[in-house]
Amino acid sequence: MPDGSSDTNTTFISGGHLVAKALKAEGVEVIYTLCGGHIIDIYDGCVDEGIEVVDVRHEQVAAHAADGYARITGKPGCAVVTAGPGTTDAVTGVANAFRAESPMLLIGGQGAHTQHKMGSLQDLPHVDMMTPITKFAATVPDTARAADMVSMAFRECYHGAPGPSFLEIPRDVLDAKVPLEKARIPAAGRYRASTRSAGDPEAIEKLADLLVHAEKPAILLGSQVWTTRGTESAIDLVRTLNIPAYMNGAGRGTLPPGDPHHFQLSRRYAFSNADVIVIVGTPFDFRMGYGKRLSPDATVVQIDLDYRTVGKNRDVDLGIVGDAGLILKSVTEAASGRINGGASKRKEWLDELRAAEQTAIEKRLPSLKSDASPIHPYRLVSEINDFLTEDSIYIGDGGDIVTFSGQVVQPKSPGHWMDPGPLGTLGVGIPFVLAAKKARPDKEVVALFGDGAFSLTGWDFETLVRYDLPFVGIVGNNSSMNQIRYGQAQKYGLERERVGNTLGDVHYDKFAQMLGGYGEEVRDPADIGPALRRARESGKPSLINVWVDPDAYAPGTMNQTMYK
Question: Model's pTM, two decimal places?
Answer without folding.
Answer: 0.94
